[in-house]
């Protein structure tokens, strides 16, 4: 019997086989090792984040229960990431279902055109800002108050300050005070935030030249300190920023640390954002956010607001229809008028109307009483007696000089006042009010 020797058993082929096997084996081991290493690294990172952001776990689980996020374990490796404007908007849109507009309502969102992936959620959320349409600018990402233009940037990574300003625009009822914040109180509170600079100017003209004047998204305050005068806040936008800081801080939603540092320019993380949104949800009673219209929002836009206080008397030249707004919870307003010819007043409170003749209204030392009867304001419509037309209509007929000739002046107060004395003080001092 003849045997054929297999060449695979030849020594040099045997070594080649071993070499080929070894390379394959080594490659397999390397691939498996890399896979295990990668898995181990990701697992380690997730574990590290899970430990580092344990303080955010209740908020993440809350968000998961409301369909905003996944479980804490699934989200752990993302919690240290920054948050874009689009991500914030999506979270708010999912959590606060009250932010909705009619499906067919077209709202222009500068920076987010209708064809954009983000348009629908931006339209719902920012189109629902209580003070819209003018209020939409206050939640934007680029703002120019000089020409009133603004842009939303969905991909912008948000700082803590960006987040604060956006939330302040969306949730204006957050906080319990500061509706009236005078310069002294504002200055004291400004100084309590150690890492938010205060820049002083010697005049309002110098303030206006400042490149950060009227900049809502700048974490700085402007202060005007003229010689021999008390300092005062640079602009209304500085007040907006101060109110936002104090209201959100005192509500426990966004606070400075124990050293008074707010870290306004620090990028906000997903962990922080999650906790902050849960705090807002809880602030409104755990039932989501429901905007409660302010008095100003309830008053028809065509009425000029005149605010009636309990302990002061005021006067004003009038060339329009008026809303006398009850402040300090007063129940009665005292009113008198003067003019160069008879003007009657139609007064409406809670839908009930009464017309007062000029002869009664012009008795300055015995003003009429207007009971608010639980209403926040009274509508007042001046009517020119000789034509029977509202003065604003008569002004359109006779031209601008009509109002100057009419010289219609309102005197009003939340307490009984002898307005004949007030009139003397007005002429002597050129002051609109006295205590």
TrEMBL record:
Residue ranges annotated for the SLH domain, each copy included: 43-106
Keyword Signal: yes
Keyword presence, Signal: yes
Pfam families given in the database record: SLH
Cited InterPro entries: SLH_dom
Membrane-spanning segments: none
Keywords: Signal
Signal sequence bounds: 1-44
The protein, known as: S-layer homology domain-containing protein
Upper lineage: Bacteria, Bacillati, Bacillota, Bacilli, Bacillales
